[in-house]
Amino acid sequence: MRKTVRELQKEQTKELLLQTAYEVFSKKGIMNTRVSDIAQAAGVSHGTIFVHFSSLEAMIEEVVALYGQKIAMRTHALAQSSGSLSDLLRAHLCGIMEFEPFYTHLVIENRLLPPGARDSWISIQSAVSFHFSLVYEREFGHNDRPGIPLHMLFNMWMGLVHYYLQNGDLFAPEGNVIGRYQDILIDSYLKLLKGGMTEK
Amino acid sequence: MRKTVRELQKEQTKELLLQTAYEVFSKKGIMNTRVSDIAQAAGVSHGTIFVHFSSLEAMIEEVVALYGQKIAMRTHALAQSSGSLSDLLRAHLCGIMEFEPFYTHLVIENRLLPPGARDSWISIQSAVSFHFSLVYEREFGHNDRPGIPLHMLFNMWMGLVHYYLQNGDLFAPEGNVIGRYQDILIDSYLKLLKGGMTEK
DNA sequence: TCATATAATGACTATATAGTCAGTGACCTA
DNA sequence: TAGGTCACTGACTATATAGTCATTATATGA
Q: Would you call B156 and A188 a contact, using CB atoms and an 8 Å cutoff?
Protein backbone atom coordinates (compact mmCIF):
# COMPACT_ATOMS: atom_id res chain seq x y z
CA MET A 1 0.00 0.00 0.00
CA ARG A 2 1.38 3.37 -1.00
CA LYS A 3 2.19 5.95 1.59
CA THR A 4 -0.18 8.80 1.88
CA VAL A 5 1.03 12.38 2.18
CA ARG A 6 -0.03 12.32 5.77
CA GLU A 7 2.03 9.29 6.67
CA LEU A 8 4.98 10.79 4.89
CA GLN A 9 4.69 14.07 6.74
CA LYS A 10 4.32 12.31 10.03
CA GLU A 11 7.54 10.43 9.36
CA GLN A 12 9.27 13.63 8.34
CA THR A 13 8.15 15.36 11.48
CA LYS A 14 9.40 12.55 13.64
CA GLU A 15 12.68 12.57 11.74
CA LEU A 16 12.89 16.32 12.31
CA LEU A 17 12.23 15.89 16.01
CA LEU A 18 14.86 13.18 16.39
CA GLN A 19 17.47 15.24 14.62
CA THR A 20 16.57 18.45 16.39
CA ALA A 21 16.70 16.69 19.73
CA TYR A 22 20.12 15.34 18.82
CA GLU A 23 21.33 18.86 18.07
CA VAL A 24 19.87 20.37 21.19
CA PHE A 25 21.26 17.54 23.32
CA SER A 26 24.66 18.09 21.73
CA LYS A 27 24.60 21.74 22.70
CA LYS A 28 22.82 21.81 26.06
CA GLY A 29 23.34 18.32 27.36
CA ILE A 30 20.63 15.72 27.62
CA MET A 31 19.32 16.10 31.15
CA ASN A 32 19.42 19.88 30.86
CA THR A 33 17.13 19.92 27.86
CA ARG A 34 13.41 20.71 28.30
CA VAL A 35 10.67 19.48 26.02
CA SER A 36 10.00 23.09 25.06
CA ASP A 37 13.64 23.56 23.99
CA ILE A 38 13.26 20.84 21.41
CA ALA A 39 9.82 21.98 20.30
CA GLN A 40 11.03 25.51 19.83
CA ALA A 41 14.20 24.49 18.00
CA ALA A 42 12.16 22.27 15.69
CA GLY A 43 9.53 24.94 15.15
CA VAL A 44 6.65 22.82 16.34
CA SER A 45 4.35 23.13 19.31
CA HIS A 46 4.94 21.58 22.67
CA GLY A 47 2.14 19.09 22.19
CA THR A 48 3.56 17.76 18.94
CA ILE A 49 6.38 16.10 20.82
CA PHE A 50 3.86 13.89 22.57
CA VAL A 51 2.17 12.94 19.33
CA HIS A 52 5.41 11.20 18.40
CA PHE A 53 6.81 10.11 21.75
CA SER A 54 4.97 8.81 24.77
CA SER A 55 7.20 10.73 27.14
CA LEU A 56 10.41 12.72 27.26
CA GLU A 57 12.21 9.66 28.59
CA ALA A 58 11.03 7.64 25.64
CA MET A 59 12.26 10.36 23.33
CA ILE A 60 15.69 10.41 24.96
CA GLU A 61 15.90 6.65 24.65
CA GLU A 62 14.99 6.78 21.00
CA VAL A 63 17.47 9.55 20.18
CA VAL A 64 20.28 7.80 21.99
CA ALA A 65 19.40 4.48 20.38
CA LEU A 66 19.35 6.02 16.91
CA TYR A 67 22.51 8.06 17.15
CA GLY A 68 24.22 5.41 19.22
CA GLN A 69 23.67 3.05 16.35
CA LYS A 70 24.95 5.63 13.87
CA ILE A 71 28.09 6.06 15.95
CA ALA A 72 28.59 2.32 16.21
CA MET A 73 28.01 1.81 12.47
CA ARG A 74 30.37 4.60 11.56
CA THR A 75 33.05 3.28 13.89
CA HIS A 76 32.51 -0.15 12.45
CA ALA A 77 32.96 1.18 8.90
CA LEU A 78 36.10 3.10 9.77
CA ALA A 79 37.52 0.16 11.67
CA GLN A 80 37.10 -2.21 8.73
CA SER A 81 40.10 -0.79 6.92
CA SER A 82 42.31 -0.88 10.00
CA GLY A 83 45.26 -3.17 9.51
CA SER A 84 47.11 -2.23 12.66
CA LEU A 85 46.09 -1.33 16.18
CA SER A 86 47.33 2.17 15.47
CA ASP A 87 44.90 2.43 12.57
CA LEU A 88 42.09 1.11 14.71
CA LEU A 89 42.63 3.59 17.51
CA ARG A 90 42.68 6.39 14.99
CA ALA A 91 39.51 5.09 13.39
CA HIS A 92 37.91 4.94 16.83
CA LEU A 93 38.79 8.55 17.56
CA CYS A 94 37.66 9.66 14.11
CA GLY A 95 34.33 7.99 14.68
CA ILE A 96 33.94 9.79 17.98
CA MET A 97 35.06 13.10 16.54
CA GLU A 98 32.25 13.13 14.01
CA PHE A 99 29.78 13.04 16.90
CA GLU A 100 31.95 14.66 19.52
CA PRO A 101 29.56 17.07 21.26
CA PHE A 102 26.85 14.44 21.59
CA TYR A 103 29.27 11.67 22.46
CA THR A 104 30.80 13.87 25.14
CA HIS A 105 27.43 14.37 26.76
CA LEU A 106 26.94 10.62 26.76
CA VAL A 107 30.27 10.25 28.54
CA ILE A 108 29.24 12.86 31.10
CA GLU A 109 25.64 11.86 31.65
CA ASN A 110 25.30 8.19 30.75
CA ARG A 111 24.75 7.01 34.30
CA LEU A 112 21.90 9.47 34.77
CA LEU A 113 20.00 8.60 31.60
CA PRO A 114 16.93 6.37 31.36
CA PRO A 115 17.82 2.65 31.37
CA GLY A 116 17.34 2.11 27.66
CA ALA A 117 19.70 4.94 26.83
CA ARG A 118 22.39 3.46 28.99
CA ASP A 119 21.96 0.16 27.20
CA SER A 120 22.50 1.87 23.86
CA TRP A 121 25.59 3.52 25.27
CA ILE A 122 26.96 0.19 26.34
CA SER A 123 26.45 -1.32 22.93
CA ILE A 124 28.60 1.37 21.38
CA GLN A 125 31.38 0.27 23.69
CA SER A 126 30.82 -3.34 22.76
CA ALA A 127 31.24 -2.57 19.09
CA VAL A 128 34.59 -0.95 19.77
CA SER A 129 35.63 -3.76 22.05
CA PHE A 130 34.98 -6.28 19.31
CA HIS A 131 37.28 -4.57 16.84
CA PHE A 132 39.89 -3.92 19.46
CA SER A 133 40.17 -7.60 20.35
CA LEU A 134 40.22 -8.62 16.73
CA VAL A 135 42.98 -6.29 15.66
CA TYR A 136 44.98 -6.73 18.82
CA GLU A 137 45.17 -10.49 18.51
CA ARG A 138 45.95 -10.28 14.84
CA GLU A 139 48.81 -7.92 15.55
CA PHE A 140 50.20 -9.32 18.75
CA GLY A 141 48.65 -12.69 19.36
CA HIS A 142 47.37 -12.99 22.89
CA ASN A 143 50.40 -14.03 24.84
CA ASP A 144 52.60 -11.02 24.41
CA ARG A 145 51.42 -9.27 27.53
CA PRO A 146 51.39 -12.02 30.11
CA GLY A 147 49.51 -11.00 33.18
CA ILE A 148 47.50 -8.24 31.55
CA PRO A 149 44.14 -9.44 30.31
CA LEU A 150 43.09 -8.09 26.96
CA HIS A 151 39.96 -6.51 28.37
CA MET A 152 42.12 -4.54 30.77
CA LEU A 153 44.09 -3.09 27.88
CA PHE A 154 40.80 -2.16 26.28
CA ASN A 155 39.51 -0.58 29.47
CA MET A 156 42.68 1.47 29.76
CA TRP A 157 42.19 2.85 26.29
CA MET A 158 38.54 3.64 26.87
CA GLY A 159 39.30 5.09 30.26
CA LEU A 160 41.93 7.37 28.80
CA VAL A 161 39.75 8.63 25.96
CA HIS A 162 36.73 9.17 28.19
CA TYR A 163 38.85 10.90 30.80
CA TYR A 164 39.86 13.45 28.21
CA LEU A 165 36.31 13.91 26.99
CA GLN A 166 34.85 14.15 30.47
CA ASN A 167 37.35 16.83 31.38
CA GLY A 168 37.17 18.51 28.01
CA ASP A 169 36.36 21.81 29.67
CA LEU A 170 39.86 21.74 31.11
CA PHE A 171 41.74 20.13 28.23
CA ALA A 172 40.13 21.98 25.34
CA PRO A 173 37.56 24.61 26.28
CA GLU A 174 36.77 25.20 22.60
CA GLY A 175 35.43 21.68 22.44
CA ASN A 176 37.66 19.83 19.98
CA VAL A 177 39.26 17.49 22.46
CA ILE A 178 39.82 14.66 20.03
CA GLY A 179 41.22 16.80 17.23
CA ARG A 180 43.65 18.34 19.63
CA TYR A 181 44.78 15.24 21.48
CA GLN A 182 44.32 12.29 19.17
CA ASP A 183 47.98 12.04 18.17
CA ILE A 184 49.37 12.21 21.66
CA LEU A 185 46.70 9.84 22.97
CA ILE A 186 47.36 7.18 20.35
CA ASP A 187 51.10 7.68 20.50
CA SER A 188 51.33 7.46 24.27
CA TYR A 189 49.05 4.48 24.52
CA LEU A 190 50.90 2.54 21.85
CA LYS A 191 54.31 3.36 23.30
CA LEU A 192 53.16 2.10 26.64
CA LEU A 193 51.67 -0.99 25.11
CA LYS A 194 54.69 -1.82 23.02
CA GLY A 195 57.28 -1.07 25.65
CA GLY A 196 59.43 -4.18 25.56
CA MET A 197 56.93 -6.06 23.46
CA THR A 198 57.76 -7.79 20.22
CA GLU A 199 55.26 -7.93 17.40
CA LYS A 200 54.04 -11.29 16.25
CA MET B 1 34.13 35.19 74.41
CA ARG B 2 32.72 31.84 75.40
CA LYS B 3 30.31 30.03 73.16
CA THR B 4 26.74 29.97 74.27
CA VAL B 5 24.67 26.81 74.19
CA ARG B 6 22.81 28.31 71.29
CA GLU B 7 25.91 28.83 69.19
CA LEU B 8 27.05 25.36 70.00
CA GLN B 9 23.77 23.81 69.03
CA LYS B 10 23.70 25.77 65.83
CA GLU B 11 27.11 24.44 64.93
CA GLN B 12 26.04 20.93 65.83
CA THR B 13 22.97 21.22 63.65
CA LYS B 14 25.03 22.42 60.73
CA GLU B 15 27.48 19.60 61.29
CA LEU B 16 24.58 17.17 61.36
CA LEU B 17 23.22 18.57 58.12
CA LEU B 18 26.58 18.35 56.37
CA GLN B 19 27.09 14.78 57.41
CA THR B 20 23.53 13.73 56.69
CA ALA B 21 23.74 15.33 53.26
CA TYR B 22 26.95 13.42 52.65
CA GLU B 23 25.23 10.16 53.53
CA VAL B 24 22.16 10.85 51.44
CA PHE B 25 24.31 11.94 48.51
CA SER B 26 26.33 8.75 48.85
CA LYS B 27 23.21 6.68 48.62
CA LYS B 28 20.96 8.55 46.18
CA GLY B 29 23.42 10.58 44.19
CA ILE B 30 23.81 14.31 44.46
CA MET B 31 21.56 15.67 41.75
CA ASN B 32 18.86 13.16 42.63
CA THR B 33 18.63 14.34 46.20
CA ARG B 34 15.84 16.73 47.26
CA VAL B 35 16.06 19.18 50.12
CA SER B 36 13.32 17.25 51.88
CA ASP B 37 15.34 14.00 51.64
CA ILE B 38 18.10 15.59 53.66
CA ALA B 39 15.75 17.27 56.11
CA GLN B 40 13.91 14.03 56.74
CA ALA B 41 17.09 11.98 57.12
CA ALA B 42 18.46 14.53 59.56
CA GLY B 43 15.19 14.73 61.47
CA VAL B 44 14.79 18.48 61.05
CA SER B 45 12.23 20.51 59.20
CA HIS B 46 12.55 21.61 55.62
CA GLY B 47 13.04 25.23 56.60
CA THR B 48 15.99 24.45 58.85
CA ILE B 49 18.12 23.67 55.82
CA PHE B 50 17.77 27.28 54.73
CA VAL B 51 18.72 28.60 58.12
CA HIS B 52 22.15 27.11 57.53
CA PHE B 53 22.53 27.30 53.75
CA SER B 54 21.42 30.03 51.41
CA SER B 55 20.35 27.53 48.78
CA LEU B 56 20.58 23.87 47.88
CA GLU B 57 23.42 24.67 45.48
CA ALA B 58 25.34 26.34 48.27
CA MET B 59 24.79 23.29 50.42
CA ILE B 60 26.06 20.96 47.73
CA GLU B 61 29.13 23.10 47.27
CA GLU B 62 29.83 23.07 50.97
CA VAL B 63 29.39 19.33 51.32
CA VAL B 64 31.61 18.60 48.36
CA ALA B 65 34.22 21.09 49.57
CA LEU B 66 34.26 19.56 53.05
CA TYR B 67 34.37 15.92 52.05
CA GLY B 68 36.58 16.65 49.07
CA GLN B 69 39.09 18.04 51.50
CA LYS B 70 38.71 15.03 53.76
CA ILE B 71 39.37 12.74 50.84
CA ALA B 72 42.38 14.76 49.76
CA MET B 73 43.80 14.86 53.29
CA ARG B 74 43.30 11.17 53.78
CA THR B 75 44.93 10.37 50.46
CA HIS B 76 47.76 12.67 51.38
CA ALA B 77 48.26 10.90 54.68
CA LEU B 78 48.20 7.46 53.12
CA ALA B 79 50.54 8.56 50.35
CA GLN B 80 53.14 9.86 52.78
CA SER B 81 54.38 6.41 53.60
CA SER B 82 54.56 5.29 50.00
CA GLY B 83 58.06 4.40 48.98
CA SER B 84 57.22 2.96 45.60
CA LEU B 85 54.74 3.76 42.90
CA SER B 86 53.03 0.50 43.72
CA ASP B 87 52.54 1.68 47.30
CA LEU B 88 51.23 5.01 46.10
CA LEU B 89 48.65 3.52 43.78
CA ARG B 90 47.47 1.28 46.56
CA ALA B 91 47.28 4.24 48.92
CA HIS B 92 45.30 6.12 46.32
CA LEU B 93 42.78 3.33 45.96
CA CYS B 94 42.56 2.88 49.72
CA GLY B 95 41.79 6.57 50.07
CA ILE B 96 39.04 6.28 47.52
CA MET B 97 37.66 3.12 49.03
CA GLU B 98 37.01 4.80 52.36
CA PHE B 99 34.67 7.21 50.58
CA GLU B 100 33.71 5.00 47.67
CA PRO B 101 29.96 5.61 47.35
CA PHE B 102 30.35 9.37 47.55
CA TYR B 103 33.46 9.43 45.40
CA THR B 104 31.67 7.35 42.78
CA HIS B 105 28.87 9.88 42.59
CA LEU B 106 31.45 12.61 42.10
CA VAL B 107 32.91 10.63 39.21
CA ILE B 108 29.47 10.21 37.69
CA GLU B 109 28.05 13.66 38.30
CA ASN B 110 30.96 16.07 38.61
CA ARG B 111 30.29 17.85 35.33
CA LEU B 112 26.70 18.54 36.34
CA LEU B 113 27.44 19.97 39.77
CA PRO B 114 27.53 23.66 40.69
CA PRO B 115 30.81 25.32 39.72
CA GLY B 116 32.29 25.40 43.21
CA ALA B 117 31.74 21.68 43.64
CA ARG B 118 33.56 20.93 40.42
CA ASP B 119 36.47 23.06 41.66
CA SER B 120 36.66 20.99 44.82
CA TRP B 121 36.62 17.85 42.72
CA ILE B 122 39.51 19.08 40.66
CA SER B 123 41.59 19.84 43.72
CA ILE B 124 41.27 16.24 44.83
CA GLN B 125 42.81 15.22 41.53
CA SER B 126 45.59 17.75 41.95
CA ALA B 127 46.54 16.32 45.30
CA VAL B 128 46.90 12.88 43.78
CA SER B 129 48.79 14.25 40.81
CA PHE B 130 51.32 15.84 43.12
CA HIS B 131 52.16 12.59 44.87
CA PHE B 132 52.16 10.66 41.64
CA SER B 133 54.78 12.92 40.07
CA LEU B 134 56.87 12.89 43.19
CA VAL B 135 57.00 9.15 43.60
CA TYR B 136 57.31 8.47 39.91
CA GLU B 137 60.35 10.63 39.47
CA ARG B 138 61.92 9.28 42.60
CA GLU B 139 61.47 5.75 41.35
CA PHE B 140 62.15 6.11 37.67
CA GLY B 141 63.62 9.54 37.05
CA HIS B 142 61.87 11.27 34.22
CA ASN B 143 63.65 9.94 31.16
CA ASP B 144 62.72 6.32 31.32
CA ARG B 145 59.61 6.68 29.21
CA PRO B 146 60.79 8.86 26.34
CA GLY B 147 57.90 10.23 24.38
CA ILE B 148 55.28 9.73 27.09
CA PRO B 149 54.78 12.82 29.21
CA LEU B 150 54.38 12.16 32.90
CA HIS B 151 50.97 13.81 33.00
CA MET B 152 49.80 11.34 30.36
CA LEU B 153 50.82 8.43 32.58
CA PHE B 154 48.87 10.06 35.38
CA ASN B 155 45.84 10.60 33.18
CA MET B 156 45.92 6.96 32.14
CA TRP B 157 45.83 5.86 35.74
CA MET B 158 43.04 8.23 36.65
CA GLY B 159 41.14 7.34 33.51
CA LEU B 160 41.37 3.65 34.31
CA VAL B 161 40.25 4.02 37.91
CA HIS B 162 37.39 6.35 37.06
CA TYR B 163 36.30 4.12 34.20
CA TYR B 164 35.85 1.29 36.66
CA LEU B 165 34.00 3.48 39.13
CA GLN B 166 31.78 5.05 36.51
CA ASN B 167 30.80 1.62 35.24
CA GLY B 168 30.63 0.12 38.67
CA ASP B 169 27.08 -1.06 38.03
CA LEU B 170 28.55 -3.44 35.45
CA PHE B 171 31.81 -4.32 37.14
CA ALA B 172 30.56 -4.76 40.70
CA PRO B 173 26.85 -4.34 41.21
CA GLU B 174 27.27 -4.74 44.96
CA GLY B 175 29.26 -1.54 44.97
CA ASN B 176 32.75 -2.48 46.12
CA VAL B 177 34.52 -1.79 42.86
CA ILE B 178 37.83 -0.86 44.39
CA GLY B 179 37.97 -3.73 46.82
CA ARG B 180 37.29 -6.14 44.04
CA TYR B 181 39.59 -4.73 41.40
CA GLN B 182 42.39 -2.95 43.17
CA ASP B 183 44.94 -5.72 42.72
CA ILE B 184 44.32 -6.27 39.06
CA LEU B 185 44.20 -2.53 38.40
CA ILE B 186 47.50 -1.82 40.09
CA ASP B 187 49.12 -4.92 38.72
CA SER B 188 48.07 -4.31 35.13
CA TYR B 189 49.00 -0.68 35.20
CA LEU B 190 52.43 -1.32 36.64
CA LYS B 191 53.15 -4.14 34.25
CA LEU B 192 52.27 -1.92 31.37
CA LEU B 193 54.36 0.88 32.77
CA LYS B 194 57.38 -1.26 33.46
CA GLY B 195 57.29 -3.23 30.25
CA GLY B 196 60.86 -2.97 29.01
CA MET B 197 61.67 -0.22 31.46
CA THR B 198 64.60 -0.34 33.85
CA GLU B 199 64.38 1.14 37.29
CA LYS B 200 66.64 4.00 38.21
C1' DT C 1 -18.05 16.44 -2.90
C1' DC C 2 -18.42 15.36 1.71
C1' DA C 3 -17.97 12.63 5.90
C1' DT C 4 -14.17 10.81 8.40
C1' DA C 5 -9.59 10.32 10.19
C1' DT C 6 -5.69 12.36 12.03
C1' DA C 7 -1.45 15.47 12.60
C1' DA C 8 -0.76 19.44 14.81
C1' DT C 9 -1.92 23.01 18.19
C1' DG C 10 -1.56 25.44 22.58
C1' DA C 11 -4.13 26.37 26.59
C1' DC C 12 -4.74 23.81 30.59
C1' DT C 13 -3.79 20.55 34.54
C1' DA C 14 -1.09 18.21 37.78
C1' DT C 15 2.85 17.84 40.29
C1' DA C 16 7.20 18.50 42.24
C1' DT C 17 10.00 21.22 44.81
C1' DA C 18 13.12 25.42 46.04
C1' DG C 19 12.78 29.03 48.85
C1' DT C 20 9.96 32.37 52.26
C1' DC C 21 8.12 34.00 56.47
C1' DA C 22 5.27 34.70 60.49
C1' DG C 23 5.02 32.24 64.64
C1' DT C 24 6.94 29.64 68.79
C1' DG C 25 9.49 28.52 72.62
C1' DA C 26 13.94 27.92 74.54
C1' DC C 27 17.95 30.47 75.77
C1' DC C 28 20.45 34.66 76.89
C1' DT C 29 21.76 38.78 79.36
C1' DA C 30 21.13 42.74 82.13
C1' DT D 1 13.41 37.33 86.37
C1' DA D 2 11.85 39.75 82.38
C1' DG D 3 12.25 41.27 77.94
C1' DG D 4 14.76 40.39 73.84
C1' DT D 5 17.05 37.28 70.60
C1' DC D 6 17.32 33.57 67.64
C1' DA D 7 17.25 28.64 66.04
C1' DC D 8 13.76 26.13 64.43
C1' DT D 9 9.18 25.07 62.45
C1' DG D 10 6.01 23.97 58.76
C1' DA D 11 2.47 25.93 56.11
C1' DC D 12 2.60 28.74 52.21
C1' DT D 13 4.16 30.80 47.68
C1' DA D 14 6.26 30.84 43.32
C1' DT D 15 7.83 28.56 39.54
C1' DA D 16 9.07 25.21 36.30
C1' DT D 17 7.66 21.82 33.41
C1' DA D 18 5.81 17.02 31.91
C1' DG D 19 1.90 15.43 30.04
C1' DT D 20 -3.40 16.01 28.50
C1' DC D 21 -7.09 17.09 25.55
C1' DA D 22 -10.61 19.68 23.11
C1' DT D 23 -10.15 22.11 18.92
C1' DT D 24 -8.57 23.07 14.21
C1' DA D 25 -7.20 22.40 9.67
C1' DT D 26 -6.00 19.38 6.26
C1' DA D 27 -5.76 15.07 3.78
C1' DT D 28 -8.24 10.90 2.59
C1' DG D 29 -11.15 8.03 -0.02
C1' DA D 30 -15.87 6.49 -0.95
A: yes
Give the number of C-alpha atoms closer than 13 A to the C-alpha of residue B185, restricted to the C-beta side: 27
Residues of A with CB under 8 A from a CB of B: 29, 31, 108-112, 122, 145, 147-149, 152-153, 155-156, 158-164, 166, 169-170, 184, 187-189, 191-197
Q: Tell if the CB–CB gap between B156 and A160 is shorter than 8 Å.
A: yes
Looking at chain B, the whole-number percentage of residues with pLDDT higher than 90 is: 86
CA max distance for chain B: 66
Is the pLDDT at B146 greater than 90, yes or no?
no
Question: B80-106 pLDDT, tens per residue?
Answer: 989 899 999 999 999 999 999 999 999
Measured in angstroms, what separates residue A116's CA from nucleotide C16's C1'? 24
End-to-end CA distance of chain B: 58
Between B134-138, B143-147, B189-193, the lowest mean confidence (pLDDT) is in B143-147
CA A10 to C1' C1, in angstroms, rounded, equals 26
CATH topology assigned to domain A56-194: Tetracycline Repressor; domain 2 (1.10.357)
Average pLDDT over chain B, rounded to an integer: 94
Return the SS3 of B105.
helix
Domain B54-194 sits in CATH at 1.10.357.10
Does domain B1-53 bear CATH number 3.40.50.720?
no
Could you tell me the residue ranges of all domains in chain A?
Answer: 1-53, 56-194
Q: Is A122 in contact with B164 (Cβ distance < 8 A)? A: no
Residue B184 has a pLDDT of 97
Residue A40's pLDDT band, with cuts at 50, 70 and 90, is very high
Q: DSSP secondary structure string, B53-108? A: -SSHHHHHHHHHHHHHHHHHHHHHHHHHT--SHHHHHHHHHHHHHHTHHHHHHHHH
Mean pLDDT of A167-182: 97
In the 5-34 segment of chain A, residues within 7 Å (Cβ) of strand D are 5-6, 34
**Alpha-carbon gap, residue B165 to B108, rounded angstroms:** 8
